[in-house]
Design brief:
The complex is a heterotrimer of chains A (320), B (179) and C (160). Chain B is 21% helix and 13% strand. Chain B has helices at residues 2-21, 64-68, 103-107, 133-136, 149-152; strands at residues 47-49, 74-80, 86-94, 113-115, 130-131. Chain C has seven helices and no strands. In chain C, helix 1 runs antiparallel to helix 2 (25-45) and helix 2 (25-45) packs antiparallel against helix 3. The chains are: A mainly alpha (320), B alpha+beta (179), C mainly alpha (160).
């Protein structure tokens, strides 16, 4: 088995950076939403409001960590850490730059998919344990949504995997040195983007936590740091999907030599994060059945067709 | 399926683009405490009592403002000095009730009570919202610089007899038959 | 590597026991997920990372989600839990316990006499693919036909 594990120091640095960036996304999102809505966003705490995150963290840490008496305590406490752990685990296979990364695994893509599918438990257990009808509705929606969109997410990746001939994310990046996969796999890219938004239940697919219909969905009963874990978990999810988009479709750290590779990776990831926030600013939420129909009747056939055509293309090219 | 793709391109993608373009539009937010807004001169804010060009109070305690006030936030008591001038003994406005409607200003026959563009009126103690005459009086004429009620009114006060006001004819001797 | 195997195996056994003895359905399901994940770790240690990941994706990630989904619909409360507790009498354990003991003795004798080698043999993704699309091509195609039929049926049902 070929697993190159980074040093403890680099693992710690990556973990720290990922969590800090995810926390900073709270501020980035509010500023960008402000920009697109012709507002300013938070700019009072510190320079440009950068310390808003610190203020939010202090607030959320000092809040009473309350477990409702009617909740199932075991599952209620178990649920929030799951999403944090699962998404942070997924980051272990992401290659950030040459030599920067936790594990260099031959099953990287599968590992990410496995972790994404386990992330559904966080939402489901949280909603089920809350013993609250809105939470239950939210987690029902979340479960159906995440299980369905996982399917298209997996299938849309397979085109890239077939082209690169490897499940190893580092090798997928290296095989893009003469052309990013976003061009030949544009359909896969779009499907992965949509499925990624649905997987991290971000707007416009935030149906599990639609405020106007079901209060806050599965985290209605959560407060304090348990809510904070759901909250940061969502931003970690955005970061993960963005970096996956970069790694799988946009050449990872590859780019002209005038900037170091890690900067290229950060720039591309930042672009996709901004796009996620633009989606939130612009697109209204679909109805639940529309979401399901869209997935099963449109995205699934399209992704299968994409996979079929990619396979046919590879075979044709080999025959030449 | 093709229709869905076309709809996506013509609605969702166009929406994304239009929202993105807003990034280059001017921000609507006014950063209020740092950047003070320019209020219009006629803005109906905090109420003041003005003085005439000679530095005397304009208010003649006629009570019209108190009558006009829809929320009854003005209270005053008339008094008269040795020269025959009327003035309010006390003049009290309860700003916690005032709705800044400006009816008092319209009702005032002497331009004494005026509304100013100042809107920063919050207080921590409710009692501080009640303003007395010495709080309300300003050392100026407000919006009407030259107006002096007693100079144009026919009322006789110390130093100004009947017929001495501006544009006022001398009093006619009603008992005389001469033209 | 041995430590990892034995600890994962111990977790699997304990979690499975907890699945059987837990009276709360949701807790039992959580233990079942843990058990499946530890089995995935065992696969991993034995040199089958692909099987391990499929175990995590398909069993722990998808099928158990559907189990939990059904549990949500059933609205199980304290009453069900008490019922479960009442059913869990020691008398109930005798039959399954005896049968399992026989199975365990058989397993132990097989392991002791045959001597299964625990030396990890790496089976990569490529090896599995070559096997599946080489000697077992017919079986794969048959299975995929079955899945395709299911897919089309699901599509038809969703369309209505």
């Amino acid at each position: 088995m070929r697993f190159e594990v980074g040093s403890a120091l680099s693992i710690g640095a990556i973990l720290f950076t990922v969590i800090i960036v995810a926390a900073m996304l709270i501020w980035v999102e509010r500023r960008l939403l402000g920009l697109w809505q012709e507002r300013l966003g938070p700019n009072r705490v510190g320079p440009f409001g950068l310390l808003q995150v610190v203020a939010d963290m202090i607030k959320i840490f000092t809040k009473e960590d309350w477990v409702p008496p009617f909740a199932d305590k075991f599952s209620f406490i178990l649920a929030p850490p799951i999403i944090m752990v699962v998404i942070l685990m997924s980051f272990s296979v992401i290659p950030f730059a040459p030599g920067v990364g936790v594990i260099d695994s031959d099953i990287g893509v599968l590992f990410v998919l496995a972790m994404a599918s386990l992330g559904a438990y966080s939402v489901m257990l949280g909603g089920l344990a809350s013993n609250n009808k809105y939470a239950l509705l939210g987690s029902l929606r979340a479960a159906a949504q995440m299980v369905s969109y996982e399917v298209f997410m997996g299938i849309s990746l397979l085109g890239v995997v077939a082209l690169a001939g490897s499940f190893n994310l580092r090798e997928i990046v290296l095989s893009q040195s003469d052309g990013w996969y976003v061009v030949p796999q544009f359909v896969g890219f779009v499907i992965f983007l949509i499925a990624g938004v649905a997987e991290s239940h971000r707007l416009p697919f935030d149906i599990p936590e639609a405020e106007q219909e079901i209060v806050a969905g599965y985290h209605t009963e959560y407060s304090g740091m348990k809510f904070g874990m759901f909250f940061v978990g969502e931003y970690l999810g955005v970061l993960l999907i963005s970096s996956l988009l970069v790694v799988l479709f946009c050449g990872g750290w590859l780019g002209p030599a005038f900037l170091p590779p890690i900067v290229w990776f950060a720039l591309k990831t930042g672009f996709f994060i901004a796009f996620f926030i633009l989606l939130r600013a612009a697109i209204p939420r679909p109805r639940y059945d529309q979401l399901m129909n869209y997935g099963w009747l449109f995205l699934l056939p399209l992704s299968l067709l994409n996979l079929l055509l990619t396979g046919a293309f590879i075979l044709w090219q080999d025959g030449m | 399926m093709l229709r869905l793709i076309k709809d996506t391109l013509t609605t969702q993608v166009v929406t994304l683009w239009r929202v993105f373009v807003h990034a280059f539009a001017k921000t609507d937010t006014v950063e209020y405490p740092d950047v003070q807004p320019q209020m219009a001169a006629r803005w109906r804010g905090r109420i003041i009592l003005s003085r005439d060009p000679d530095g005397e109070e304009r208010c003649v305690a006629c009570n019209l403002c108190a009558v006009a006030c829809p929320v009854d936030c003005i209270a005053l008591q008339k008094a008269e000095d040795d020269e025959g001038r009327w003035y309010p003994e006390f003049f009290r406005i309860n700003f916690s009730r005032c709705i800044m409607c400006g009816f008092c200003e319209e009702a005032c026959p002497t331009n004494a009570i005026q509304l100013t563009p100042d809107f920063e009126m919050a207080e921590y103690v409710r009692q501080d919202m009640v303003w007395e005459k010495e709080d309300l009086l300003i050392n100026g004429t407000g919006k009407y610089h030259d107006y002096n009620f007693y100079r144009v009114a026919g009322k006789k006060i110390g130093g100004k007899d009947k017929g001495e006001a501006i544009n006022e004819a001398p009093p006619v001797n009603v008992r005389s038959l001469l033209p | 590597m041995m430590m990892l195997f034995y600890s994962a195996a111990a977790i699997a056994v304990i979690a499975t026991l907890a699945v059987i003895s837990s009276s709360n359905v949701v807790h039992a399901l959580v233990y079942l997920i843990i058990s499946l994940l530890s089995v995935a770790v065992i696969f991993f240690v034995l040199g089958a990372p692909f099987a391990a990941m499929l175990e995590a994706i398909v069993y722990a990630g998808a099928i158990m989600v559907l189990f939990l989904f059904v549990m949500m619909m059933l609205n199980l409360g304290q009453a069900t839990e008490n019922e479960e507790k009442a059913w869990m009498t020691p008398k109930l354990w005798i039959g399954p316990g005896l049968l399992t003991a026989v199975l365990f003795v058989q397993l132990a004798s097989v392991l002791l006499t045959q001597g299964v080698a625990l030396a990890p043999v790496e089976v990569g993704v490529l090896d599995i693919s070559l096997l599946l699309f080489g000697p077992w091509l017919l079986a794969v195609e048959l299975a995929s036909m079955l899945l395709l039929a299911g897919l089309i049926a699901a599509y038809h049902l969703a369309k209505r």
